[in-house]
Write a structure and sequence with these properties.
The protein is an alpha+beta fold. It has a single domain, classed as Roll (Chitinase A, domain 3). It is built from three helices and four strands, in the order βααβαββ. A four-stranded antiparallel beta sheet has the order 2-1-4-3.
Amino acid sequence: MARATARHILVETEDKCLELKQRIEEGEDFTAVAKEFSTCPSSAQGGDLGQFGPGMMVKEFDEVVFSADINSLQGPVKTQFGYHLLEVTERTD
């Protein structure tokens, strides 16, 4: 079964998500941005969600995690929880 390891930043608005994406693309550290801005409890670990399989996260999140290039910044991804920036750090098929 496929498995992925990912980290993410969850915020309430698309505008905030886009702002943070730009900051990371310009060189700010993903972990530091996650700790400061993410509203998810994973923010304490710099957004690290650990390893999970298909179906363990909401559909919109799963679709990106199991198709995006490894170590590429993705988002905003809208879910019922808000807007996510995410990065797949590892994936196995």
